[in-house]
Design a protein that fits this description.
Blueprint: H1 2-17, E1 34-36, E2 41-44, H2 57-70, H3 78-81, H4 85-98, E3 102-106, H5 109-120, E4 126-130, H6 135-143, E5 147-151, H7 156-168, E6 174-179, E7 181-182, E8 187-188, H8 191-201, E9 204-208, H9 223-226, E10 235-239, E11 250-254, H10 256-265, H11 267-270, H12 277-292, H13 294-313, E12 325-331, H14 335-348, E13 351-352, E14 354-356, E15 365-371, H15 378-395
Parallel strand pairs: 2-13, 4-5, 4-6, 6-9, 9-10
Antiparallel strand pairs: 1-2, 3-11, 7-8, 10-11, 12-15, 14-15
The structure holds pyridoxal-5'-phosphate (PLP).
The site of pyridoxal-5'-phosphate has 13 residues, from helix 5.
């Protein structure tokens, strides 16, 4: 053990030396637009709490009531004795909202992506994946024996080349896999064009809509609604851990046969505990709010537009778009250092944002990723911009 310990010490030191060591700030409050950490009070602009449902009183109340009515834990996987009526109720609600026939719950979207590919795609098949897809998609694809093809981020010409390559390789089933929204840029996948290409080649379309479900599209149904392809996506995965209350849980929404087969074969579903009753009840309430309340979605849009406009006016370079993920760019060789100094200076001024640099984003493209929420007030948004300006002046 001593030799292993020594080697790990060196590995950890290297992570620190590379400036990649992550230190977790501890909150002393619930997740919200205003939080406290052990060091400071801050406006929170780095949560995936897009609709402000993480501490919504109705969601909390639903979870609390579920503790009394449904108990604390299931102590079983779904197929033994871990399925309550509300688990099925949530699955049907997710399917209905997504516009698919059926849906199946997993402990997380990471697990959903980890389980889905090996069930549906074998050595005879081809998986064509966007290069910037989420880590869980990359891992899930690795677990399947299908041939793998990768295309450049949102690059339709390259996607066509990969579809041709898969066809020439004689693939039985082909699937194109993409995030609905790319988390570092806030860019939408061009789903209409992807569906057109997939149709031309007889391929299926798979979208991970974790950064969209609940708030993207007119009714918040996701990127497929935003892009006008509601009924053209075959498989949708998503999380309950972001806009939909932010607790935990993920799902696959798809054709009934796909979901049925996943219940029989998906390993993270078969061999991992059912989602906790309070989380199921809270998520059901969160989904109900997301469905019915156009108002928080509108506030999120207004906040995002205001932030993007004010930052541009203040002379910051912001990646174009409409998604609440708003990357504020710090280009150049010393961008990584400046971004992280600005983020630190902002926290000292009571605004919590996170800087990202290589290898999370390409070299020379360091950024502070701001995430707006419906829970922010206009005053909060203005305070965030003011903190950016002051921090920039301070850092130089
Ligand atoms: C957040 C995220 C996940 C992971 O979701 P969890 O439910 O937290 O495991 C998967 N895919 C994408 C695209 C995500 O953004």
């Amino acid at each position: 053990m001593y030799a292993v310990k020594q080697a790990l010490v060196e590995e950890l030191e290297q992570i620190r030396a590379d400036g990649l060591y992550k230190v977790e700030r501890e909150l002393t409050t619930p997740q919200s637009s205003h939080v406290s950490t052990t060091q400071a009070e801050a406006l929170n602009f780095c949560a995936n709490n897009y609709l402000g449902l993480a501490d919504h009183p109705d969601v909390v109340a639903a979870a609390r009531e579920a503790l009394d009515r449904w108990g604390f834990g299931m102590a079983s996987v779904r197929f033994i004795c871990g399925t309550q009526t509300q688990h099925r109720e949530l699955e049907r609600a997710i399917a209905d909202f997504s516009g698919t026939e059926e849906a199946i719950l997993f402990s997380s979207c990471f697990d959903a992506n980890g389980g889905v590919f090996e069930v549906l795609f074998t050595a005879e098949d081809a998986i064509i994946s966007d290069e910037l897809n989420h880590a869980s998609i990359i891992d899930g694809i690795r677990l399947s024996k299908a041939r793998r093809f990768r295309y450049r981020n949102r690059d339709l010409a390259d996607l066509r080349r990969q579809l041709e390559a898969a066809r020439d390789a004689g693939a039985r089933r082909t699937v194109v896999v993409t995030d609905g929204v790319f988390s570092m840029d806030g860019y939408y996948a061009p789903l209409e064009e992807i569906c057109d290409l997939a149709e031309e080649f007889g391929a299926m379309v798979f979208v991970d809509d974790s950064h969209a479900v609940g708030f993207v599209g007119e009714h918040g149904r996701g990127t497929h609604e935003h892009c006008g392809v509601l009924d053209r996506v075959d498989i949708i995965t998503g999380t309950l851990g972001k806009a939909l209350g932010g607790a935990s849980g993920g799902y696959v929404a798809a054709h009934a046969e796909i979901v049925d087969l996943l219940r029989q074969r998906a390993r993270p579903y078969l061999f991992s505990n059912a989602v906790a009753p309070s989380v199921v009840a809270g998520s059901l309430k969160a989904l109900e709010i997301a469905r019915e309340a156009a108002e928080p979605r509108e506030r999120l849009r207004t906040n995002t537009a205001l932030f993007r406009r004010l930052m541009a006016q203040a002379g910051f370079e912001v990646l174009e778009g409409t998604h609440p993920i708003t990357p504020v760019m710090f280009p150049g060789d010393d961008g990584a250092r400046r971004a992280s100094q600005v983020a630190d200076a902002m926290l000292a001024r009571g605004v919590y944002v996170i800087a990202f640099s290589y290898p999370v984003v390409p070299k020379g493209k360091a950024r502070i990723r701001v995430q707006l929420s419906a829970a922010h007030s206009e005053e909060d948004v203005r305070a965030c911009v003011a903190a950016f300006v002051a921090a920039r002046d301070e850092v130089g």
